[in-house]
Amino acid sequence: FGLAASYTDSSDDEVSPREKQQTNSKGSSNFCVKNIKQAEFGRREIEIAEQDMSALISLRKRAQGEKPLAGAKIVGCTHITAQTAVSGCLFGGLGWDINRALPSPANSKDAPVLSGVAVFAWKGESEDDFWWCIDRCVNVDGWQANMILDDGGDLTHWVYKKYPSVFKKIRGIVEESVTGVHRLYQLSKAGKLCVPAMNVNDSVTKQKFDNLYCCRESILDGLKRTTDVMFGGKQVVVCGYGEVGKGCCAALKALGAIVYVTEIDPICALQACMDGFRVVKLSEVIRQVDVVITCTGNKNVVTREHLDRMKNSCIVCNMGHSNTEIDVTSLRTPELTWERVRSQVDHVIWPDGKRVVLLAEGRLLNLSCSTVPTFVLSITATTQALALIELYNAPEGRYKQDVYLLPKKMDEYVASLHLPSFDAHLTELTDDQAKYLGLNKNGPFKPNYY
């Protein structure tokens, strides 16, 4: 990244983690992180996260005797945080062989180091580092993954591209992102999906909670930490009114921002209108807005043409997918100057002196510049765990080479595990009420399409 751009500050010339020789307390060097000496700090971070992830701990206790993931060898590509470290501990408690796991995109945190899991990730990875980390987790002598846990589809893509023979032993793929799920459906439609896959993103306990409630809080957190912006009266355009966009818009509106929405889907656009937002094309408002936020899962949503037309000091950030939504590559040109303001904040300066404030170089704002609410990640991690258990233990023939939603009963189980945190007491149907509704008293209560 950034070879064509000129920076006014000196770049960090630290030795790449790939060049360092590090060993952990057990003498293993089978990992690659920025600084293994932060392991104790990481452990304390994990302990803090565990306090708001009681449902995961409860699931681990309930399933510990059965070891439903005994023999599972999971390779994963997800964000490395204290919260994902807690979920890694959960999988280990369920019997997972944790010899290999979890490379991460460039927005990983530095600190968490999970004992027993081979982690290849550090904050500030380049694109080349990212793919190197994935390769180190897939291409391992004497160890063969039999499950894939993916977030964005990059790991699945890499295996298809470089190591297709690995799929002979893979029992299933669990995918948790909009973009990754879209890629799986494309493979399935083309007849190229050679193992069953579980679409976790569209499970209720992922979409309604992680995508909506998480982003409703973390969008403000990320923007405040990086820019100290005041939202009252600011004009903001949110690109995409899916669950992520809905969460962002709700938070910004509550603080007095004037919010515009862009949409391709007439249903989502109508929802935005009914929620009180003006639906526009980005080109119609790009000259006047103070903040641009992408939440689409697509690529090149904000183009160089848009960036050229933005007003001075406009803040641009991504809450959607990877680093593709904002065309950052188009800004890596000699006529533009890049000025590093602080960590994850760059001024991109045009020849006439106009500055655009770019956050996290177009990567995910809430994972690069802030933290994600622990409780919401507990919900997602529990859903992932049940999806892994379901695919790994499914009898031969139950799942074909296609993409499946998590059974609704499991979604409801995930939710029920989290209710004790609120001292919430569920009402139980009487036999007569259950008969009237045509439901089992114990669920599932919603149809599969909900």
TrEMBL record:
NAD(+) binds at residues 242-247, 263, 366. Substrate binds at residues 81, 151, 176, 206, 210. It comes from the Eukaryota. GO terms for biological process: one-carbon metabolic process; S-adenosylmethionine cycle. CDD domains: SAHH. The keyword NAD applies. Residues 1-29 are annotated as: Disordered. Residues 211-372 form the S-adenosyl-L-homocysteine hydrolase NAD binding domain. Binds 1 NAD(+) per subunit. Signal peptide: none annotated. Keywords: NAD, One-carbon metabolism. GO terms for cellular component: cytosol. PANTHER family: ADENOSYLHOMOCYSTEINASE (PTHR23420), S-ADENOSYLHOMOCYSTEINE HYDROLASE-LIKE PROTEIN 1 (PTHR23420:SF3). This is SAHH2 protein.
